[in-house]
## 1
Amino acid sequence: METRIDRLGSVREDKLRQLKQLIADSENIVFLGGAGVSTESGIPDFRSGTGIYNTDSGVKYRPIDIIAHDFFMEHPEDFFDFYKRKLIYPDARPNKAHKALVRLERQGKLKAIITQNIDNLHQEAGSKCVIELHGSVFRNYCMECGKKYDLEYVVAQEGVPHCEKCGGIVRPDIVLYEENLNHKDVDDAIKAVKKCDLLIIAGTSLTVYPAATFAQFLKHDRIVIINKSSTYMDLKALLTIHDNVGDVLDNCVPKRVSRAKAATKSKAKTKTSTKAKTTAAGKTAAAKTKTSAKSASKTVKSTPASKSKTETKVKVAAKPKTAKEPAKKPAKSKS
């Protein structure tokens, strides 16, 4: 819920300036987002007054019960009826929040988006570093043979969609209540949070686990909360803004990097690259010189001995043999 202090223009502007500065001073930003990121694209959230959990499900069951594993297995017809009406929005398009995050990623500052949404809007906007904790409605698979299907196939089927190959039920690749999250996705999210120098949490009430606990892995307090309603992290965060996620991010993320900054970054990268190349070349040259010197040393040491031995052999071979002369017989005296 928006607080009275957030409605004061000067306070709001001060907070936006603070966020701009935090973004400018950070080089490894991680964004953790929930349903509130996509509400401006026409997709309702879950827990607000007009959210999915507080509206008529159209069936005799509560929405929160329908999107559970056991319910899906026992009542697939009711599940898909609700699913197609309330959880699929194929015509939704990325809003200002998604586009601002794309800019932040292209500027080299945003290293990961951890999303609890299943709408694929981050990828559609152009983001590359997206970790989908709860899966995506755009991926579907047969529960029997594993054959994959797109969203169009599921939407086109009446009632429960079945596999055209084996007849098994085709279910969306999303995480329902009572199901485990993908361990790799959770591990990747935690690793990203541990390395970040700024964590922006937006559009989530922080009541769904384990995402609600990710902030505990930080070794600093550089946390920004952007959400219309309060969360348990509001007083622990460095900055809290109760406002629309799209408006805040669009205002605070630069539309473009200034030429001076871009040139400085490019120069720094070039300098680092040149230094690395020079160091590598120096090491290679030193290694070659050392090898050459070692080889020369071996040659110098071995040559004299080899040469001396050869010359001795030649001299011995060239020495003329002295023939023994026959002893002369004494001349006979003439008598």
Note: The chain has ten helices and nine strands.
## 2
Amino acid sequence: MQSILWAAVGTGFTFLMTATGAAMVFLFRARLNAAVQRIFLGFAAGVMIAASVWSLLIPAIEEAEAAGTPGWLPAVGGFVLGVGFLLLLDGLLPHLHAGARSPEGIHASWRRSTLLVLAVTLHNIPEGMAVGLSFALAAQHAGEGAALSSALALALGIGIQNFPEGAAISLPLRQEGLSRLRSFLYGAASGVVEPIFGVLVVLAAGGIQPLMPWLLSFAAGAMMYVVVEELIPEAHLGEHSNTGTLGVMAGFVVMMVLDVALG
């Protein structure tokens, strides 16, 4: 029960940061500047790369080895399954990325605004899983402050990058013709999946304890898929965008410092 409560609190914070970012639609009228958008996308990618290593894969290896299992086995197996899970969702869930002309996934006659929200929602699923599992792991090691500090660092890092992410969905929705209130609600709703998936994955981990290393690696694989498939291309790094590249480096450094300093 404590694991579920801690996971709900951690993912609740990251959802709140998404909602706060979405609230920027009440203060600004225009879209985010293209250069600023690239920086934010790159920053989010950097945070997720560092989090996948320090907050997920390394703890997964340590947990497996403590249980007498070769550390690489759940790290590799869970990672591959996480990639496959996001690959499947990416191919099935109808969604539209900001600036794209045509949607991805199975064809659906949904509104453009709905498809835009679903694109960000797809990104938030592995983030919720990662934060939820980190807090569940901290609850299992309640006597060790390092585990809780690491979970807090992850929630803070994900929360920081969720703020501009919320704005990046609500502002384009406003440009699409939606009211400020609806744009905010849709932007905030894109983050609801974080506490949902955060709690669900903790329930799965609690039901079968040896699954924890696999689930941690699963979340890492899912996040890395989002980074490579969506965030980095959207940051226009293929066009030698220095702003996007520096955003990745900044995000990686911030998440690394948070995890090492607080952990």
Note: The chain has a mean pLDDT of 86.
